Amino acid sequence: MARNIVDTLQPRKTIPATLLGVGLGVGAGSLLAASVSALAGYFARRVVTPEERRIGNSMIREVVTDGEGKLWLHFVKDADTSQPGPCMFLTEFDACALRLSAPIEVPGKPRRVARKIEHVYRGSLEGVRRGYLSGAVYEHPEDLGFTAEDVVVPLEGGDGPAWLVRGTTSKDVWVIGVHGRGARRNETIRALPALASMGVTALLMSYRNDGLAPNAPDGRYGLGDTEWLDVQAGIQFALDHGAEQIILLGWSMGGAISLQTADRSELADRIDSLMLVGPVINWVDVLSHQARANKIPQSVGRFAQWLLSNKAGRWVTGQAAPVNLRRLNWVDRASELKHPTLIMHSRDDEFVPNGPSLKLAALRPDLVTLRTFTKAGHTREPNVDPQGFAQAVTSFLSKRIAARAAAAQS
Prior knowledge:
There is one protein chain. The protein is α/β, with parallel strands linked by helices. The chain has 11 helices and 15 strands. It has an 8-stranded mixed sheet, with helices on both faces. A 6-stranded antiparallel β-barrel has the order 1-2-6-4-3-7.
């Protein structure tokens, strides 16, 4: 992202007069101010409010049975339904959950795309006409053949359920999976094959407001500014159960959370390194991109950021405290990065553009290893290129495990 755009979208300490309609006349100015305020407030609230009901816009045209008796869903072809790689199809309130294959073209029907139903996790397609597609392909580690223990991580607000997949050859090396905004711990299951090949232990945890762990008192996301406290609890759990080397694996907003944990936690010195998938490196950049994608005027987007990051905006957003967007900007804070970090980010990420990841890697080549992917949507790097994803993870882990062994011998 060009520097001048990022700079102009930095949160301001006072509400810009242009946003209040000054100079447009009392009537017109008041109307404009009200419209801007309403739209900015709606956008800001959406950013920090967990979604309890997701209907989805992926339209099913028909269910087809092939010659082998396999069921296929024919979707209206769009950017979501034609995303490469396997996915999960979910209906309203997640009542129906299906694992689907990668898409293929439908002969003679260029406006359709087909995906085979590979597994039914729950529910029925009866009466279903639409849903949403998730890159989190699996419901439970057992779906990939992994034995997982149900454990509880004591969080600030109560018990957070987690899966513990014990390691083998390097069982005292713990990788803590931190999922993204609007997702749950099953998002991180896709990394298990690579982690298991290295013999490490995996803790796939929950955190506040994700529908599994207890909600925060205000019921709002902190975009990493508050959730890091739960990951700190996950680190303490790992240390209490034999971890000697801890690596955080953050996905999307989980990347922002992991970076804040490594920066602010009292246990930061027990973190060896970070692995980040499609991470939010700079929330200002993401919010600006989302505003443009939703055709929200730049001035409205700036005002929404002001509402999120200032105390006066709390009555609109419902936040207990504002989000410190500057503290979440790791492009500007690149010199403060302390931990070796692997970033895996697709150039075709439509939700969290990889520009800040590229910038951070360029600014800190001493600490950041960057692996770019193509054709993968947001956090779908392991779906589209599982071999490339696994190679990036195992190569990084090999170096970190070797570095620890070398340090122990010195």
